[in-house]
Specification:
By secondary structure, this protein is of the alpha+beta class. It is built from seven helices and seven strands. It has two domains: 47 residues, no CATH class; 154 residues, Alpha-Beta Plaits (2-Layer Sandwich), CATH 3.30.70. The strands form three sheets. The protein has a three-stranded antiparallel β-sheet. A two-stranded antiparallel ribbon has the order 1-6. A hairpin with a 4-residue loop joins strand 3 and strand 4. Bound molecules: iron/sulfur cluster (SF4) (2 copies). The site of one iron/sulfur cluster has 13 residues, from loops.
């Protein structure tokens, strides 16, 4: 059954069509007006942008504008990781791989984990959704979402980031392709230096970069990690 409003609408258009047929001149000018009006409505949006302030960003000469809550590659503090697997369990796509030689526990005096060694901590960025669900459950706050832009790579294999291998070189986060170039614009060099100097860290090893680098390498060594019995 046709609803009342649909019947009314249909009869209105029937009447309107009949009226227009009776007055061809009126219909002619009405069509012209409709065409001009709809074009003007469309152009209004374009014109607004014609006079708006330009927002062209001269990247890479100028730094890209990154939203405050942008999530890029993680940064991982291996020396604080207790390999509890909570991040891997929280990950909805199972893209975190963790291996250890034995249980690890934070030494309260130094803030560094001791016990077994980390043999693997890797994230497959071909699967990662950058949802940050792995960050909240971490009991030692050692996995964070980073803010480096450009998450591209040359092949599928390079999408799997081995954080344990990065730790040997003193890195907490993979370097994006732009950061691996030798000559960098000033803003990029500053951003690179800040990551290599861990300026974002506020833990017990803040401003102790050499100690932190050593702790990162030690986290991979079962002998150095072993807790000595008194
Ligand atoms: S950001 Fe999300 S998808 Fe990526 S590793 Fe963390 S939990 Fe998994
Ligand atoms: S939740 Fe934190 S401490 Fe536990 S394995 Fe993941 S990164 Fe390491």
């Amino acid at each position: 059954m046709v609803p009342v409003w649909a019947r009314d609408l249909r009869s209105h258009y029937k009447w309107y069509g009949a009226e227009m047929q009776k007055q061809p001149t009126r219909e002619y000018f009405h069509n012209i007006w409709q065409t001009v009006y709809t074009i003007l409505v469309g152009l209004r949006i374009s014109l607004k942008y014609c006079f708006a302030k330009t927002i062209t960003l001269q990247y890479p000469d100028a730094a890209p504008a990154i939203a405050p809550r942008y999530r890029g590659f993680h940064f991982y503090e291996i020396e604080k990781c207790i390999a509890c697997d909570l991040c891997a369990k929280a990950c909805p796509v199972d893209c975190i791989y963790i291996e250890k030689s034995g249980p690890r526990k934070i030494d309260k005096a130094t803030g560094i984990a001791k016990g077994g060694a980390m043999t693997r901590y890797a994230i497959d960025y071909a699967k990662c959704m950058f949802c940050a669900l792995c960050v909240d459950p971490c009991p030692t706050e050692c996995i964070h979402m980073g803010n480096l832009h450009d998450l591209s790579g040359f092949d599928r294999k390079s999408m799997i980031v081995e954080f344990t291998e990065l730790a040997i070189e003193g890195m907490q986060t993979p370097q994006p392709l732009w950061m691996q170039k030798e000559k960098l614009p000033e803003w990029a060099q500053q951003r690179k230096d800040s990551w290599l100097e861990y300026t974002h860290s506020t833990d017990k090893l803040s401003n102790k970069n050499e100690e932190r680098r050593q702790a990162m390498v030690d986290a991979l060594d079962p002998e150095k990690m072993a807790v000595k019995k008194k």
